[in-house]
Amino acid sequence: MIIRPYEPADTDALYDICLRTGDNGGDATALFADPRLIGELFVGPYVRYEPSLAFVVDDGAPAGYVLGARDTVTFEQRCEREWWPPLREKYPPGSFPDGTRDAYYVERLHESRTADPAIVAEYPAHLHIDLLPRTQGRGMGRALMERLLAALHEAGAPAVHLGVGAANTRAIAFYERMGFATLRQSPNGRTMGRPTS
């Protein structure tokens, strides 16, 4: 089991990992009519615009990843210009029945949401990390996170933040062990951050 830089041939596998960890760390395959939708939001723009900040756990096939954006504001602006418009055409409002997971993410896709300026002022980078069960509990999450933190630091990002759902208690405990502190909390989840060094 190794950690290596992302390669373009990994993209479909990373979309699949995103789906299989998309229910607060559990398998969301049965929750989506369109298996690529969640990956279009949480994998696609990162591997397109920040491929040097994408790292993969490989045990013969991709089994986990961490994705980062050095400057959240710049990344969000680029997505708004380039990534979201074709996806909004592909997935117009009403593409899926109300109340479905697909409909929820299509609604999010059509919102122009940006990170809290107070958070990104101090924690300008952000990340997403997902591991399939076969890699968990083996130090791969820590190794992935350390690899990305070093790359972000080298790229000039002083600190990084992430979002996590309230129900994903294993992830919250992992982030706390990695030195992340809670910056903001709501009933649905929390934003956590830490310096990159």
TrEMBL record:
Give the residue range of the signal peptide. none
Q: Does the keyword Transferase apply?
A: yes
Q: From the UniProt record, which GO molecular function terms apply?
A: acyltransferase activity, transferring groups other than amino-acyl groups
Domain of life where this protein originates: Bacteria
Q: Which UniProt keywords apply?
A: Transferase
Q: Where is the N-acetyltransferase domain?
A: 1-197
- Pfam families given in the database record: Acetyltransf_1
* PANTHER family referenced in this protein's UniProt entry, alphabetically: O-GLCNACASE (PTHR13170), PROTEIN O-GLCNACASE (PTHR13170:SF16)
Q: What is this protein called?
A: Acetyltransferase (GNAT) family protein
